[in-house]
TrEMBL record:
Record Pfam families: Amdase
Residues forming coiled coils: none
Protein name: Asp/Glu racemase
InterPro entries: Iso_Racemase_Enz_sf, MaiA/AMDase
Amino acid sequence: MTGHHFPHALEATRPAQVGLIVLQSDETIEPDLRRLLPPELELLVSRIPSGAEVTPATLAAMESEMTASAALFPAGAQLAVVGYGCTSGTAQIGAAEVAARIRAGVEVQHVTEPVTALIAACAELGLSRLALLSPYVAPVSERLRAVLAEAGIATPVFGSFLVEEEARVARISATSILAAGQQLVAASAEPVEALFLSCTNLRALPVIEPLEAATGLPVLASNTVLAWHMARLAGTRAQGPGRLLRGDGGAMRAAG
C-alpha cells in the first residue's frame, strides 16, 4: 500500500506578524493584546522565565533569558515588531539592552516595550506629568519613576498596592483599581495631566473608561500603550478603551 502525495502551493501573501514576549507569570497581557491589536495583525507569542516575586533582582535576571525567548519565535515568521511585555523589567534592564537582547535572538524590524511605548504615548498626547499607580513594592516602582524622569516625564503623585508576588497582581479587582486610581488623582497636591496604570499583568482594561470619566484625565495602562505602539510601528492602529486608542491625541494637543 502506497501513500498519496498531493501537490501544494504556497500562499502568495501572508498577514503582517508581530511578536510578544510574555512573562511566565503573566495571565493578562496576551488576552489584552489579542483584543487591542487590529485583526490584520497576526500575534505570535513566546514566554520568558520570571520570578515568583517581583524584585529588582528577579527583574534583572530576565535579561539573560531574553535572547533565548526571542529565538523561540517560528523560524519562518516575518515579524514587523516584537514587544517585550514587562514595564518594570524594562525599567530595570534598560530599553536599549532589551532591544539588543531580542534582536540577538530574532530578526525583526522594530522592538518596543511598555516604557518606550509610554514615553511615545505621552509625546503623542502632549503629557509630561503623570499620576502613577503600581502594584509593586517601592524599589521596583522607584526605578520606573527614575527612568520616566530621565525622559522628561514627572510622576509627582504615586501609589502602590505593595504586591510582592506576581501571581497576585492578576487577582487585584477592578473595584480596587478604580478606587485607587480615583483616590490617587484626588490626593495629588500638584496638577497631573494623566493617570498611568503600570504592569502588564494588571487587569486594567475594564477600568480605563470609568477612570477617565471620573477624573477627567486620560488614563494609560501598560497594555494599552504597548498595543498602541506595536500597531503604530507595524503601520496600523490599535483599538480599545481610553483617549489614546480612540485617537484623541490631536484634539488634546490643540486644546493644550
